[in-house]
Amino acid sequence: MAVTTEMVKELRAVTGAGVLEAKKALEQHNGDFDKAIDMLREKGAARAAKRADRSAKEGVIELYAHPGNRVGVMLELNCETDFVARNEQFRDLAHNLALHIAAAAPRYLNKEDVPTQELDRETSVLKAQALAEGKPEAVIEKVISGRIAKFYEEMCLMEQPFIKDEKIKIKEMMTDAISSTGENIIVRRFARYELGEALED
Fold it and tell me: Three-class SS of residue 166?
């Protein structure tokens, strides 16, 4: 399949990749748009890993209040330079992350942030459920593993599918942003408040 300028342009708009990178990805996958996106994402992930150690102390504090002012979010999104911090794409990312947090209510940033005690409790509950459902011993570990992945998706921001496009996870959005800006970008912290919610001890 011949790769057209329009196809390259469209792929660049979605991924933020350079002209040659986008063209090469489309050519390698015979014009298959989804495979080209996956390839560019994988390259972006490699670049993101290289940048992960770089200091990110610039950025924005994004404040978001859901219509009706019943849910509010405060998010700190960091990057390396004030140039990127002022960039519209970076600010849109901060806004979308805050909006997502308001709607999806994650409790933790990453899987590693879930306390061991909570994870152990969840695992034992899931095991008891699997046994009660009559699952064979041989598949119980696999069943628990799948349900723990679902638990992480519900509880951890980076594992959640983005509410505006469930085909992409938040961690993939972050990788795409790192790839297109050329800087390390991290969610430093966030807080979500809901009117009338019980306060934890």
Answer: strand
H/E stretch holding 145:
helix 137-155
| DSSP type of residue 92 | H
Query: What are the E-state strand segments in 25-111?
Result: 58-65, 71-79
Query: pLDDT class for 201, splitting at 50, 70, 90?
Result: very low
Evaluate if residue 178 carries a pLDDT over 90: no
- CA dist 16 and 9 (Å) reads 10
- Residue pLDDT, tens place only, 107-148: 999 999 999 999 999 988 888 888 888 878 778 888 888 889
pLDDT of 46 higher than 70: no
Q: Does this model's pTM top 0.90?
A: no
What does the block give as tokens for 50? Answer: 């290289």
CB 158 within 8 A of CB 173: no
Single-letter residue type at 182: G
Distances (CA, A) of 35 to 19, 22, 23, 55, 82: 17, 11, 13, 32, 34
The contacts of residue 11 (CB under 8 Å, 6+ apart) are: 17, 22, 25, 26, 33, 36, 37, 40
